UniProtKB/TrEMBL annotation:
Organism annotation: Liquidambar formosana (Formosan gum)
PANTHER family: DISEASE RESISTANCE PROTEIN RP, DISEASE RESISTANCE RPP8-LIKE PROTEIN 3-RELATED
SUPFAM superfamilies: P-loop containing nucleoside triphosphate hydrolases
Keyword Plastid: no
Keyword Membrane: no
Gene Ontology BP, a term: defense response to other organism
Keywords of the record: Plant defense
Protein name stated in the entry: NB-ARC domain-containing protein
InterPro entries cross-referenced by the UniProt entry: Disease_R_plants (IPR044974), NB-ARC (IPR002182), P-loop_NTPase (IPR027417), WH-like_DNA-bd_sf (IPR036388), WHD_DRP (IPR058922)
Domain NB-ARC: residue ranges: 1-43
Residue stretches making up the Disease resistance protein winged helix domain: 137-188
GO MF term (any one): ADP binding
Amino acid sequence: MLLTTRNKEVAQHIDRRGFLREPQCLSKEESWELLKKKAFLGKDDLDYRINIDMEKLGRKMVARCVGLPLAITVLGGLLTTKNTLNEWNLVEENFSSYLRRGKGHEQEQSTVSEVLALSYHELPYQLKPCFLHLGHFPVDFDIPTKKMFKMWMAEGIVSPMLEGEETMEHVAECYLGELLDRCMVQVGERGST
């Protein structure tokens, strides 16, 4: 039997003789590599796009993630939509203020919570209700996209951009795509369409 938990005491309570594996946090270099993969996802010639100032800023932010892959992935998803140094500076300023608010808590837990909060607050206004609507489903539940799109439309969360230009289903697909790009949703299975 395999049990995963963030609380070591829970694992020890189940079976004191069982094998306990505690994954280590990523090193600084591994953290930076993960951030680059996420922040520059789908962009051509990865090394060409990263200027020195962006790299310094990225390394500074990723260091505050204390090697936690979830925090780094969320930060990378947030940065994937930012293409200029000014945009990265804005994220870094907001990132710093969120982390300062979390001081006094356990460092790792606080970091993840604050990065997730920043990721949510940085969402465009039209994506926030879509993301919040996902809370209706259980954790790790496979959500059929067609059903979810219909729910978004019925709730008035999704509406056509301009009359006659795009269908509401196409707008919902775009919204889901943006949530995927920001690592706010995980793809379980892709269909032929």
